[in-house]
Design a protein that fits this description.
This protein is α/β, with parallel strands linked by helices. The protein has 20 helices and 15 strands. The chain is elongated and about 85 Å long.
Length: 419
């Protein structure tokens, strides 16, 4: 989990409790899986007895960080940032201790609180004079922008970002005894600017550590799907979809992710990887990864619900298990399957199974095809086999009050919505 580490950092951590911070971009009221490396680093850090500080970039969120990006970010209002901060802290509190009286309980701060009273003249006098333009120009993130990665060039606002972040570290060093800043490898330039500012202005020691940026084994961006980010907020990404994201990782990615995103001991991880290599078709590595991280983020009850929902498509689920899952999970499971609509009035009167398959919907191309499928026992309604042509579909078949799940063969699903 470590990419770059400043000399002396390991010795610092070995001495006793150390305070370290990471910054979180407050562009949404939820974290997504792209944030999880920093969160897991802080989890390990706290478990080892050290004190985490999470800095919500209220001030820096109003500026935009050029590190690893070719364009400026959208700027946020203070009200939006405060709301996002509350949402993020609620999520982190599930697995980071903020509320106990332990000496290493975590703290969350907003850098806007100490930057808002800072006048421009005060900043360039007290901070700007300690870091040269030559030093700032040498940073990779600045070089990339100035060398034409973005046709619009780089604004002065973005250019000064590393000074603003550097001042955060200085403020935390002086007022919170924070000795270490951690972040993704794209933050190395900003982190070292902070340590240099602290050294030049205050003559104090400070340290930095980065982790590798996460990518998938195929080179694509980690944490992104066709439908967008995988969020930690269950309202944005259901626990079922969250579970499926980890379950569907490749063997190579799962072997890497299980080391980073779980708290399993090294010996257990090594044994899992060895077991998986002997029987990869059982996907034991992916199942363990998905279970551990879903339980960590959403809790065991949500994991059990996601597991039961998964069995609907891939296991021997029953009509009862279909009815037990909530509507959001139900729709997540069957996202993308063909859908048909029928009227509530039709259902009240009852519809013969043949008419249901071939007339009221187009699940079957004709009544003849429907009869043949029924004769060969290939039709299921709500995961239960339909015995023959005499079956009638009625209101008792409704799942969540408005859905009927039809199935032809083992893998062909159809969702009928009753309106």
């Amino acid at each position: 989990m470590i990419q770059d580490i400043m000399p002396g950092t390991e010795e610092l951590l070995a001495k006793g409790q150390t305070t370290a911070y990471v910054g979180i971009d407050p562009t949404a009221d939820s974290l997504h899986v792209g944030h999880l490396v920093s969160v897991m680093m802080m989890k390990h850090f706290q478990l080892a007895g050290h004190k985490p500080i999470f800095i919500i970039g209220g001030a820096t969120g109003m500026i935009g960080d050029p590190s690893g990006k070719s364009q400026e970010r959208n700027l946020l209002t203070e009200e939006t940032i405060r709301a996002n901060m509350a949402g993020i802290k609620a999520q982190l509190s599930r697995f980071i201790d903020f509320n106990s009286d332990a000496p290493n309980a975590a703290v969350m701060l907003n850098n806007y609180d100490w930057m808002k009273e800072f006048s421009f003249l005060d900043f360039i006098r007290d901070v700007g004079k300690h870091i040269t333009v030559n030093y700032m120009m040498a940073k990779d993130s600045v070089k990339r922008r100035l060398n034409g990665e973005c046709s619009d060039g780089m604004s002065f606002t973005e250019f000064t970002y590393q000074l603003v972040q550097g001042y955060d570290f200085l403020h935390l060093r002086k007022h919170h005894g924070c000795m270490l800043q951690m972040g993704g490898s794209d933050q190395w330039g900003n982190i070292t600017t902070g340590t240099e500012l602290i050294r030049r202005k205050e003559g104090m020691e400070a340290y930095g550590l980065t982790w590798p940026l996460m990518t998938k084994s195929d080179g694509k961006k980690f944490g992104k799907t066709e439908s967008g980010n995988i969020w930690l907020d269950p309202r944005r990404t259901s626990p079922y979809k969250f579970y499926q994201f980890w379950l569907n990782t490749t063997d190579d990615d799962a072997a890497r992710y299980v080391k980073i995103f779980t708290l399993l001991p090294s010996a257990r991880i090594d044994a899992l990887i060895a077991e998986h290599a002997e029987a990869p078709h059982l996907r034991k590595l992916q199942k363990t990864l998905a279970k551990e991280i879903t339980c960590l983020i959403h809790g065991e009850a949500a994991y059990n619900a996601a597991l039961e929902a998964s069995q609907i498509l891939f296991g021997n689920a029953t009509s009862d298990s279909l009815r037990r899952i909530d509507e959001e999970t139900f729709l997540s499971v069957f996202e993308g399957v063909p859908q048909f609509e029928i009227a509530t009035a039709d259902l009240k009167a009852g519809i013969s199974i043949v008419d249901f398959l071939a007339d009221k919907t187009a699940i079957m191309a004709s009544k003849g095809e429907a009869r043949r499928a029924l004769k060969s026992n290939a039709v299921s309604i709500n995961k239960e086999k339909v015995g023959g042509e005499e079956a009638v579909i009625g209101e008792s078949h409704l799942v969540n009050g408005k859905y009927i799940l039809a199935q032809s063969g083992k893998k062909n699903y159809f969702l009928v919505i009753v309106k």
